[in-house]
Specification:
Layout: H1 2-28, H2 33-42, E1 45-54, E2 58-65, E3 72-76, E4 81-87, E5 89-91, E6 104-113, E7 116-123, E8 127-136, E9 143-151, H3 154-163, H4 169-178, E10 190-196, H5 214-229, E11 235-239, H6 249-258, E12 263-268, E13 280-285, H7 292-301, H8 304-307, H9 322-346, E14 352-360, E15 372-376, H10 383-389, H11 392-415
Parallel strand pairs: 1-5, 10-11, 10-12, 12-15, 13-14
Antiparallel strand pairs: 1-2, 2-9, 3-4, 4-7, 6-7, 8-9, 13-15
């Protein structure tokens, strides 16, 4: 009986796979044009295999898809990168199958938003794709994307960057549409932006034991904190991202400002080379880092946009305005007050590292008019911290303590006429 059930289950699975392939073939042949776009939106591409071969003169990447992928290629300088944009894609192959080698010193891939995914190839020097094409698999198992990269000189790479049809208009549209509005805040409500660090193609750190990605940990904590804050009368909290999508650092700041947030709390769970270091840390912004640990962490966090294959944009020079400077100073003072309130809540409740309030030049904390902190809840490089970070009860405890800290901070601000 059990054996017959297993055979029946396998047969059903084969029929399901066959049906899916037949449907994909019909769509590819445009026999169902009206349904094609809706099916693609519900059913992302599957990248089920990958391989990379070559040396430091020429390197080939091959990625297997369950059906034909549309793609586009762009080049970015400083540092040199090749960006391959795809429709929504699930990457189902082991990471080791596409480990960087040859001309590539780093390879990232993942979700950008609900409709798109991206592969970012960081190169060891100026490189171009001599070949970038999709071809049908000979055995009928979908299609493969073939990328042949070869070494070029700096002048040729600069020309590629200059002459390509890259446009920021798409990115600008995404920035606008990505801004979520919190549930309508009542007059006088204290609005808080809760920012889950990383997301989409930017996975963040990886757990030492479970290999859990930081972006999952931060989103779970952000949701728990937002839910807890919204139980308090007069407080309205919202998430900068509600699912696994990529947001640039400037988008996160813009979301907080456009929703008139009175606080911005960015949640993280990094890794360190020193596996024995554990505990929480609260960071505020400063032109000069408090120590090397803070400087190194800020440098890594500020690479988020680069990891996702975004162009380096020079920030426009701010108007030399004494009022703006005073606003920044006041905001920084409020940020420090919030950091101290958080650490007071954590005292005797949550372990912290030595000198738990530190500061550095975090780009995600740069809003001149929104008090902001970056909270390292713990370190995924430490096995004991990792266990706590994945514990739902622990998330609830941290959310409660942070809510207490926010309430004390708000009361102090109100008492001072804020």
């Amino acid at each position: 009986m059990v054996k017959r059930a297993r055979i029946a289950a396998k047969s059903a699975a084969r029929r399901s796979t066959f049906a899916r392939r037949v449907l994909a073939a019909l769509l590819a042949a445009s026999l169902l044009p009206a349904a094609a776009s809706s099916v693609e939106a519900r059913d992302p591409l599957l990248a089920y295999g990958a391989r990379i071969v070559g040396d430091d003169a020429r390197t080939r990447i091959v990625i297997d898809f369950d059906r034909e992928p549309r793609f586009s290629v762009h080049y970015i300088a400083n540092p040199e990168r090749i960006v391959v944009d795809l429709p929504a894609t699930a990457f189902g192959f082991p990471a080791k199958d596409l480990a960087a080698r040859g001309l590539f010193k780093d390879i990232r891939y993942g979700k950008m938003d609900e409709e798109s995914a991206r592969i970012v190839l960081t190169t060891a020097g100026p490189v171009k794709l001599a070949l970038a094409k999709v071809q049908a698999d000979e055995a009928g198992n979908g299609h493969r994307l073939v990328l042949d990269a070869e070494m070029i000189d700096k002048k040729a790479f600069a020309e590629l960057v200059k002459t390509q049809s890259w446009s920021d208009r798409t990115e600008a549209a995404k920035t606008t549409s990505a801004i979520p509005a919190p549930q309508k805040a009542a007059p006088g409500d204290f609005v808080i932006a809760v920012d889950a660090g990383h997301g989409g193609i930017d996975t963040g750190a990886i757990g030492v034991d479970t290999k859990t990605e930081e972006k999952q940990v931060t989103l779970a904590f952000a949701k728990a904190l937002t839910d807890r804050l919204n139980k308090e009368p007069g407080i309205k909290a919202f998430l900068t991202r509600e699912d696994d999508e990529f947001l640039s650092l400037s988008q996160r700041v813009l979301i907080a400002r456009q929703n008139h947030a009175g606080l911005f709390i960015s949640l993280h769970a990094d890794t360190l080379k020193q596996k024995d270091i554990r505990g929480a840390t609260v960071y505020t912004i400063s032109d000069k880092a408090s120590d090397k640990l803070a400087a190194d962490l800020a440098e890594r966090e500020n690479l988020s946009d680069q990891i996702a294959g975004k162009e380096t944009v020079t920030e426009p020079p701010e108007v030399a305005d004494i009022l703006l400077d005073l606003t920044r100073r006041e905001t920084q003072a409020f940020s420090i007050s919030l950091a101290e309130s958080v650490l007071n809540s954590f005292k005797d409740q949550v372990g912290t590292i030595n000198n738990p309030h530190r500061h550095a030049g975090f780009r995600v904390l740069q809003a001149p008019d929104v008090p902001s902190i970056l909270l390292e809840i713990g370190f995924l490089s430490n096995a004991e911290d990792e266990k706590l970070l994945l514990d739902e009860a622990w998330r609830g405890k941290i959310a409660g303590l942070l809510t207490d800290a926010v309430k004390r901070y708000r009361a102090a601000v109100m008492a001072n006429g804020g």
